[in-house]
Design a protein that fits this description.
Strand content: 35-45%
Structural class: mainly beta
Number of strands: 9
Radius of gyration: 20 Å
Order of helices and strands: HEEEEEEEEE
Strand order of the largest sheet: 1-2-3-4-6-7-8-9
Shape: globular
């Protein structure tokens, strides 16, 4: 191989290492989110990929925060329902445009053993966001479904 070809190959390899392989998800986005309603206050951050779906939403891959002062300890796996809300599975997607949530919404577990699933109810009149809260067998904790005001905004790209 000639010197110029070796340099070109080295530059190409360095470029792939620096920018990633074609098809990589890219740099994750960090979002600030919150929702509130009667007796409900939840907020935190979510991490998503940087490529939107055909519906303009981004797949949530991580979550932190709290609901009514109780720490969020995990994201419900995509395609599964939060305990106590079968058969309604979550898609764990959020978008920048209204409605920011799909009809499936996202789900998360709380440190006290309960679960929540905020989602967009387009079958309601008027259309609105709701939170399904699941006591999931925790003594003294009942399931509920209440209207919420949901907002999320992408704040930065994560390294």
């Amino acid at each position: 191989m000639t010197n110029s070809r070796m340099r070109l190959l080295a530059l190409l390899v360095c470029g792939l290492v620096a920018t990633g392989r074609p098809g990589d998800a890219g740099t994750p986005l960090l979002w600030n989110w919150s929702y509130s309603g009667a007796g409900i206050s939840a907020s935190g951050t979510i991490t998503t990929g940087d490529t939107a779906t055909a519906a303009g939403r981004f797949l949530i891959t991580g979550i932190t925060g709290s609901r009514n002062g109780v720490a969020i300890v995990g994201l419900q796996p995509t395609g599964t329902p939060i305990p106590g809300n079968a058969p309604y599975v979550v898609d764990n997607e959020v978008g920048a445009d209204e409605p920011q949530l799909s009809g499936a919404g996202f789900g998360f577990a709380l440190a006290d053993g309960t679960f929540a699933n905020p989602f967009f109810a387009d079958d309601r009149s008027p259309k609105t966001c709701l939170e399904f809260f699941s006591g999931a067998g925790v003594p003294g904790r009942d399931n509920s479904e209440r209207p919420i005001d949901f907002t999320a905004s992408a704040s930065e790209r994560r390294p």
